Automatic annotation (TrEMBL):
Protein name as catalogued: Nucleotidyltransferase family protein
Residue ranges occupied by any Nucleotidyl transferase domain in the UniProt entry: 14-238
Domain of life of the native organism: Bacteria
Length: 248
């Protein structure tokens, strides 16, 4: 495997998770895999991601495919049209978020990027991988700030007594963006061919007192998971194209 090196000597390689059925995005995903639904007039989501990775100096990419995977393989090919070397790993049965990595573990570099194939963001993927490689953490999670507004008065009760009241509060929290820096050694001890979820991996690391690092990001991010998100992405793409596809 050849490619650009990070400052720590790590190959700049990404794994794109593109094997899901995209159930929440139906009917758009009835005939197309979710990473290939179009954004704007010219580009599929996966094409945007591949262009971004190439612009960030990644030269190697493995795409984990499953549902309608042959359509993805036919669309992307060997990746040369974007200056990437692309290979594939096929899920014969659903393996969860992290399970596909176990089947390709031996052909991955020491540190690599993992991401969902349906994300629209201007996140600096190379910086996520560089920061992960330098951190010594088993896993780095790109995180995004969210705020939820509760439309009700919230009561705190103890022994059937109301002890506190807050009128329509807001709660700030950070969510996973579906982009991770991961070290190959973090996968040690898991069995290839068995499902492994992101949640299970994180809980295992916390239980082992080896916590992931957080990469906090506050730029543009959309997870194209529901029709409303997809409609928003299309509505915003023209005005954000120069941000998402620099030089395009």
């Amino acid at each position: 495997m050849t490619g650009t090196l990070t400052e720590g000597g790590n190959l700049m390689h990404a794994v794109i998770l593109a094997g899901g059925k995209g159930v929440r995005l139906r009917p758009y995903t009835t005939a197309l895999p979710k990473p290939l639904v179009p954004i704007g007039d010219q580009h599929a989501i996966l094409e945007i991601v591949l262009r971004q990775l190439a612009a960030a100096s990644f030269t190697g990419c493995t795409i984990a495919i499953g549902h309608l995977g042959e359509i993805i393989r036919a669309y992307v090919g060997d990746g040369s049209q974007w200056g990437l070397t692309v290979d594939y790993a096929t899920e014969e049965s659903p393996l969860g978020t992290m399970g596909p990595l176990l089947t390709m573990r031996e052909r991955l570099p020491e540190h690599f990027l993992v991401m969902n194939g349906d994300i629209l963001t201007d996140l600096d993927y190379a910086d996520v991988l560089r920061r992960h490689s330098a951190s010594g953490a088993p896993l780095t999670i790109a995180t995004y700030a969210r705020k939820v507004h509760i439309d009700f008065g919230v009561l705190t009760t103890e022994a059937s007594r109301v002890v506190a009241f807050t009128e329509k509060p807001s709660m700030d929290y950070r969510v996973s963006m579906g982009v991770y820096g991961l070290s190959r050694a973090t996968l040690d001890g898991y069995t290839a061919g068995l499902p492994l979820g992101f949640d299970e991996l994180v809980l295992d690391l916390l239980h082992a007192d080896d916590p992931p690092h957080a990469y906090e990001f506050d730029g543009y991010w959309l997870d194209i998971g529901r029709p409303d998100d997809y409609d928003r992405a299309n509505a915003e793409f023209t005005s954000r194209k120069s941000l998402l596809l620099k030089g395009a």
